[in-house]
Design brief:
290 residues; MetI-like fold
Length: 290
């Protein structure tokens, strides 16, 4: 009976994995089937290197460099908030708090991941954006800074949760040996626990980066959606994801604008794939050094 149950679970696991890969393959096929014809009219260099995005004028312009810069600026700002605070929260929860309080705070941090992105966007639109506009004397509160702060808060639970799991996986024998040799708890945390848990921390950073890059609704609501080169964090920007969300309903099916939006989606897909591959290599390299 036990062997039969084991074979059933194994078959179900393989079936779910195969179904997931099949679904991913169909999505990839559909995405590139719609995107590739676009490059028969516009060269990849003009598409990636152009700064003008005017899809409805005659002749149209399809340059996404400014939106690539906007996506990169917003993501960098989000990581600047999420990474240090996420790692700090993980160390505080795993190394400082007593067990009872640890469970409460960990649940509270993970609750942030369950808040819908539209709620974050509404908060940014009504509260954070106007506050930043008044404090910094900006013409508008819908800027890259507003989007970065919100995306940083949204990515923080991912970074903190994975980093805390990595900290919890460090054997207690390492801590005990460090303390027995005369190290303080602070020295033990920074010189023993952090190096031992760094592969998991890097995994959290890369997943948090993917969370920030792929977010659509929050960025669409608070970034200003200006498809021009962003001079600073205090200016409105438009990201690649927001461009697809804003314009897909207006693009005639099968037209050049429609194909261009699928090309934007293909660029996002390839970048996310590259990010996952690089993240996996970095985690393996860092983990192998322990």
């Amino acid at each position: 009976m036990a062997r039969a149950a084991e074979r059933l679970v194994k078959a179900l696991t393989w079936g779910c994995a195969t179904l997931s890969l099949f679904g991913l393959g169909l999505i990839t096929l559909f995405l590139f089937r719609e995107a590739i014809p676009f490059f028969r009219h516009i060269s990849p260099f003009s598409f990636l290197g152009g700064t003008a995005w005017y899809p409805t004028q005659e002749p149209p312009s399809f340059g996404i460099l400014s939106m690539l810069a906007g996506s990169g600026l917003v993501t960098a700002g989000a990581l600047a908030l999420a990474v240090p605070f996420g790692v700090a929260v993980a160390l505080f929860v795993g190394e400082v708090l007593p067990r009872g309080a640890r469970d409460i705070l960990k649940v509270a941090v993970e609750v942030l991941a369950g808040i819908p992105s539209v709620v974050y966007g509404f908060f940014g639109l009504v509260v954070l954006g106007p506050w930043l506009q008044g404090r910094l004397g900006l013409p508008t509160g819908q800027t890259a800074l507003t989007a970065s702060l919100l995306l940083g808060i949204m990515a923080l639970p991912t970074v903190a949760s994975l980093a805390e799991d990595a900290v919890a996986a460090v054997p207690d024998s390492l801590r005990e040996a460090s303390l027995a040799l005369g190290a303080t708890p602070w020295q033990t945390m920074w010189r023993v626990v952090v190096p031992a848990a760094r592969s998991g921390m890097f995994a959290g950073v890369f997943l948090g980066m993917g969370r920030a890059i792929g977010e659509t609704m929050t960025v669409l609501m608070v970034s200003g959606n200006s498809p021009v080169w962003p001079p600073s964090l205090l200016s409105p920007v438009r990201t690649l994801t927001a461009t697809v969300a804003l314009e897909m309903a207006e693009a005639p099916v099968g037209g050049l604008h429609y194909r261009a939006l699928f090309a934007v989606g293909a660029i996002l897909f390839l970048f996310t794939l590259l990010l996952n591959v690089v993240g996996d290599l970095v985690v393996q390299h860092v983990g192998g050094k322990r």
